[in-house]
Automatic annotation (TrEMBL):
Keywords: 4Fe-4S, Endonuclease, Hydrolase, Iron, Iron-sulfur, Metal-binding, Nuclease. The lineage of its organism: Archaea, Methanobacteriati, Methanobacteriota, Stenosarchaea group, Methanomicrobia. PANTHER family: A/G-SPECIFIC ADENINE GLYCOSYLASE/ENDONUCLEASE III (PTHR10359), DNA REPAIR GLYCOSYLASE MJ1434-RELATED (PTHR10359:SF19). It comes from Methanospirillum stamsii. This is Endonuclease. Pfam families: HhH-GPD. GO terms for molecular function: 4 iron, 4 sulfur cluster binding; endonuclease activity; metal ion binding. One of its GO terms (biological process) is base-excision repair.
Length: 231
């Protein structure tokens, strides 16, 4: 198994960015909408989450106080496309209540707080796991926190970065120890991994069209190497 350095990981990113272009995450009008989007995007396709965001926007509810006042009876039917809509309504109301009470509904005030402090506050909200919280920190508050997910796990295990059984923190550490904090890079790196996992490095990977396979100077993908020796 090859030892990956920060330089290797930057080359990996370069290969993906060259092939797929910058992903321009998070596609929303305001940081508050990004936060609501990250909650709605849990365990659902992007389209399902996007339709729910649009429905809330169309109903003129994409503001903390309005959303809180609307309550579950109004929110739930609007976000049906996001699946688990009852749970997600409760999560939205929980977050908005916290956001109004602690930060007076101000993204700037929240973003001014030390990253570790806001992270702990958000993780203390029921139903807010590290992936959702770190997405909020990175994509809404522009804090340099590397987000990892199930695609990162699959691709990382196949590349030989870390075992498939690694914890969220171990996977996150793998990147953050090697790549200096950089909001733009962290943003697009995670987005590129999601694109790769969604379209190419799927459950049954399509290695023949993978931009990181045989990219000059990059370590060979462990999974692809193993498949080649089987042929
Ligand atoms: S070469 Fe194949 S297994 Fe390796 S990252 Fe690309 S698609 Fe996934």
């Amino acid at each position: 198994m090859s030892e990956w350095t920060g330089t290797d990981l930057l080359l990996f990113y370069k290969a993906l960015n060259e092939a797929h272009g910058s992903q321009n995450w998070w596609p929303s009008d305001t940081p508050f909408e990004t936060i609501i989007g990250t909650i709605l995007a849990q365990n659902v396709s992007w389209k399902g989450a996007h339709d729910a965001v649009r429905a809330l926007t169309k109903a003129n509810l994409m503001e903390p106080a309005k959303l809180y006042r609307a309550g579950s009876d109004i929110i739930t039917p609007l976000i049906r496309s996001s699946r688990y809509y009852n749970q997600k309504t409760q999560k939205i109301l929980l977050f908005v209540n916290f956001f109004l009470k602690k930060y007076d509904g101000s993204i700037n005030r929240m973003a001014e707080m030390p990253t570790g402090e806001v992270r702990s506050e958000l993780l203390a909200l029921s139903g807010f796991g590290p992936e959702t919280v770190d997405s909020i920190l990175l994509y809404a508050l522009e804090k340099p926190v590397f987000v990892v997910d199930a695609y990162t796990r699959r691709i990382g295990a196949r590349q030989g970065w870390f075992p498939e059984t690694s914890t969220y923190e171990q996977m996150q550490d793998f990147f953050m120890r090697r790549i200096s904090p950089d909001v733009y890079l962290y943003n697009d790196y995670h987005a590129q991994i999601v694109f790769l996992g969604n379209h190419i490095c799927k459950k049954n990977p399509v290695c023949a069209i993978c931009p990181v396979k045989n990219y000059p100077g990059l370590h060979e993908c462990e999974y692809a190497k193993m498949e080649n020796t089987r042929v």
